[in-house]
């Protein structure tokens, strides 16, 4: 599965090399905008939201879609963190594994 993360373009850092600086939920990183370009309709501009995957801006998206996707990723992150916490507690013996066979008394 591939995951694209929404980020907002904060600067065109190198127009000749088609590079932009993108803010992804507070973290800024350089990405290539070669797949969407800088010129013409649909070209990347400062303030645009883009879908970023492995260092490339794959598509320009609207702000509502970007916010919705970021919110969904944060919710998944919370569920994932809870799963890790529960697993850690099981491994450390802090609470029983619900899938483990139960001891029986005769």
From TrEMBL:
One of its GO terms (biological process) is protein maturation. GO terms for molecular function: carbon dioxide binding; iron ion binding. It comes from the Bacteria. It holds the Pfam family HupF_HypC. InterPro entries: Hydgase_assmbl_chp_CS, Hydrogenase_HupF/HypC. Belongs to the HupF/HypC family. This is Hydrogenase maturation protein HypC. The lineage of its organism: Bacteria, Bacillati, Actinomycetota, Actinomycetes, Geodermatophilales.
């Amino acid at each position: 599965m591939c995951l694209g993360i929404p980020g907002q373009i904060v600067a065109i850092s190198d127009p000749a090399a088609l590079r932009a600086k993108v803010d992804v939920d507070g973290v800024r990183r350089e990405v290539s905008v070669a797949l969407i370009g800088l010129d013409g309709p649909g070209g990347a501009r400062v303030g645009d939201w883009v879908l970023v995957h492995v260092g490339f801006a794959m598509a320009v998206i609207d702000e509502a879609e970007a916010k919705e996707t970021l919110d969904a990723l944060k919710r998944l992150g919370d569920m994932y963190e809870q799963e890790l916490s529960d697993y850690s507690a099981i491994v450390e013996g802090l609470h029983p594994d619900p899938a483990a066979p139960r001891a029986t008394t005769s």
